[in-house]
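Annotators were shown the component list below and the corresponding predicted structure, then asked to write short factual statements about the assembly.
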Amino acid sequence: MANRTLTGWLLDLVARPTSVDLVFRTDDGTTHALSAPFLPSFVVAGHDVRRETVLAAARAWGCRVGRGEGIEIFSGRAMPAWRLRVPVSGLFTRTVRMAEDEFTPEALFNADISPEQQYAYATGLYPLARANVEINEDGVVQAHEILDDPWDVNAPLPELTTATLRIEGDGHPAHGRSRPLLLSYDGRSYAFEQVDGAGLLHDLSKRLREADPDLLVTEYGDDYIVPTLLELSARCGTLFSLDRTLATPAGNRVGKDPRKPIPPRSYMSYGKVVYRAATHTAFGRWHIDARNSFLFGDTGLPGLIELARLSGIPLQRLARSSPGTAISAMEVALAMSRGILVPFKKREPEDFKTGLALVETDKGGLTYLPRPGVRGNVAELDFASMYPSLMDRYNISPETINCGCCDPGQPVPGIGAHTCTRRRGIIPDTLAPILEKRRQLKARQKSADTSEGKEAFRKRQTALKWLLVVSFGFLGYRNARFGRIEAHEAVTAWGREKLLMAKEIAERDGFSFLHGLTDAIWVTRTGATETDYLALGGTITRETGMPIALEGVYDWIAFLPSKQNPAVAVPNRFVGAFRHGEVKVRGIALRRSDTPPFVAALQKRMVGTMGTADSLPALRKLRTELEAMIEDAVRELRGGRVPPEALTIARRLSKAPDQYVANSAAAAVTRELCGRGVALQPGSKIRYMLTDDGKMRGASKRAVRATALPGGRSMGFLDGSETPDLDAYETMVREAGAELLWATCVRG
DNA sequence: CATTCGCGGGG
DNA sequence: GTGTACGCGAATG
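Structure shown to annotators:
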């Protein structure tokens, strides 16, 4: 049998001992299991690394050695380098660890990049790439040709089928009583009762084969459904697998997923603790746990595909990673394509700084304190993607900040640092095409003629937005691969400079500056029209070189007072009505995820009513109407007409159950759930209701009861006899109402 | 009053 | 295989 060529898309890559398995979808809709010989490698480099040592070590570890050069990122200069290719993929991590001891971590490069990504970067065969692949009679790839470009906004994608698997009802299945399993596809649903183990597995497997989805989306699949099914399978001896039967030249076979589950863990991300359940991936199809995937929840399949294509990270792993992993992978890929050696472990110490310099540079974004009060005819102007745009425009990167080659270079305002004017940095060169592609996707989102089309473009541009957002925080993290605190500080220094310039330009042109926050300003001028504000935006864009856009003109905006000190406002607490009635709110109860839905709903109704006021006098006239809305809500609550699920409070635990010091409601609920055998980790989410059964017993402390996650109709362990603490809820309702009512009774 | 704890952000 | 920093506000003790 001769070689043949397949045309289609690469759906997945999975490392095997001496190869990478490729899951490939041809244009006729068949999914093939192909294989490409591949061994991962890493680099040992440095002027003081001795050739004999490398050769001896490589011999001892069974590695093939290639001699070459690599570019040291900070100096930009070439240095002697040796590539060590491990004999078996599975030995990669272990060999790197031995090399760390032998050569020091500083001498290792490109050493923590997964075999799948190494293959993708070496071949251009990224996940979801469209390609021709030439295979021999054993399905081994002989040659390939990439047919598209990940930066192409219009690149064609395969038709993909989806099925969903979840437990009936809402909420974490472990936080309540047992409920049936539901498999849905092609608009139909099938329920499976969890009584007869073998029968359940048999029926479910049959339906899954019939559905044969490319993508299986579960809710709590990683954390609950799949491990429960696997335990059941082990107990009753009936095989169960999420894996798929694929076409191979030798006949169809079920590919077994060689990936081991990554154990569960809790970690800090963006100031909060996140819990990641153990991963259960599939071979031949994708399994995504919607509840264990930040990116899927926010950007869906289109967003995941967008990022998989750009970063080279296989889709199932990407689904379980943060945007930081994706942007880091893109930086790594760009560095490698330029021959730059990627540092193995972070080790750049921060430059020495005096105490004074630290105070001056460590300021972050510029924040003003608006005067509390209500103002009419106010414009908000926002710099677009300010921090990533600054990194791009001023070439801010770990290797370009305070470079040794430029004197003076491009000075950074106010912090005595400079950036390189000769060599573009890895970070700005990673960000520039993302900024450009996001602009294109946003334009397509606007011009798309169907709501489905708009939604797909929205999800894709949102995925890119996340890359841009985290790219900044990433710079400031001292252990990030391309992080350097001086670069982070240069970004905020430029940000303060630009915001200050915007303020001064506005004031020069006769506007009053009311408020400024990192990348946004609020200004007003008596009698100014939208045209005047647009002109101001044009002037600021021209004079700062940074695009600023008119977010909108508020008919009125209330800067709300601090509850701790009513004489001052809080930078990010306001309510404002744009022309056409749309209301923008920040910092009030309805924006918080731990506000009971009933309380948030009252604020939403009030805000909707306030949006009908197109002037300050009109707003003040609404006062009695708004007061009546609050009283209605209290009556509804007191009348027992509020369903309990509307009174639940959601929280994310920041620590392990036994670490709680204060006896907070959340701590009490945590104890209750642990007592019921629910495993809670830092980052686990809980939901509870304030009840009055404590009061019956005369206890002074507030009583609470756990409910199911994440709300909705299922009430977990509640049996219906519990009654909400109406006093506590009435207080919350009145305070939430008063927060907004304030805007109708003050003057600017 | 001090301390503990969790949220927001972007759109 | 992640990734800022920090202020606000509610509740506890």
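Statements collected:
1. Residues 29 and 142 of chain A are 22 Å apart (CA to CA).
2. Residues 270-272, 458, 461-462, 465-466, 468-469, 572, 586-587, 591-594, 651-655, 660-662, 664, 666-667 of chain A lie near DNA strand B (CB under 10 Å from a C1').
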